[in-house]
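1st attempt posting a full record on here, be nice pls
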Amino acid sequence: MINSKIARPLRKSAFLLLLMILLFAVGCGSAETVIIVLTPTWTFTPSPIPSPTQTQVAPPPPSPTLTHTPFVPRAVIKIFVQSPLSGGQANFGTDILRGAELAVQQLGGPFVENGYKVELASYDDQNTAETAQKNASEIIADPQVLCGLGHYNSRITIETSNLYHQAGLALVAPSATARLLTDRGYLEVNRVIGRIDGQGIAGAQYAKDQGFSSVYIISGRSDALKNAEYFRREADRIGIRVLGMVITTLTEDNMRQIISRLMASKPELVYITNGADQAIPFFQKARTAGYMGTFLGTEALNDRAALNSADPSLVEGDGLYYTITSPPADFYPEAAKFIQDFETYYADKPLVFAARAYDATGICLKAIEEASKAIDGEIPTRAQVAIAIRALKDYQGITGTYTFNRQGDPTFVQYYVYKVVSVDEATWDQNFIVGSYAVTPP
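the predicted structure (as tokens):
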């Protein structure tokens, strides 16, 4: 192989020699013309193509940020609740508050849909009239408050409701059973529990259902006397013979004489309206004297401490029963979801009045809603709300169905009969409800 450095001059010399021969041939006048085409012998080598650089991909544009627009209500509607949140009755007061809280959370939807905000204004009345009335003045001064519920204690509810009445502010009581609360006929005052004096009617109906044909009645005075009188009237109406009736405060001195009369009358049933502090010693003495019939009392006997101190002979013979105005929440078939929600939210079981507080709050909300509809969705006045409560028909709550009479009592209300099979507080759960009775308020 010839070195490339030598080959290049040789190719150049050959080219010049051929050119000279061609010129010579032309010059000699040759007849044949020879044309020689020379083709270059080098090869084209393209310049290397540079490798492409990596394309830088621009980042995608940031996603748009969703700015949350806070809910700005047209107005704020307040429901108040007053109950003892401190002191000896705080467990019952907290129970009422929690029932109201759940109701506002679960039943306030229609107001939010219409652009309103519902708030619960909670007050601790400390189970004293002075504190409750001071709170009431503050509540009344707030124009956003349109309805409320409370209190735990009947006496405090009566005294404070005078202020609500003067301010035209509607109240729905979940636990107050005293007659006077609704006997005054205030438009603003209502309740979702039976009056204390309706127990006499329920007791007589239970006695009839159990087949009793005779009764001896013992009664204290005041509200206790009303129950005794209503029992006597109902017993006469349904055919139970009243063999005797004594109205007295039971003492050690007169118990022996009354028991002697009782034994001589031989009633199948003894109906008593005195408090536990008087009735329980009387029952025990009657058992000792040989009376083995049935004892039936009122909610005044619903005293665990007093019953726990009694002799077991109290429940011997034909037993001990008493009426109550409000059972545990799990007695109501419609309260199952409420109980589940309550336990989930508060990690605790509802007591006696939480479910009724839920219904009392629901009635307030429903009345405000109906009053608002009547004025094209505007905020109603307190007077319009109070009127709307009385106009509700068959409000379906979890403790019952509510329509109110002119006094503010439910037109029909349930009373319950409790059977005591154990006076030992450790086995109190053995005691149970044996029946319920719908009664028209006296």
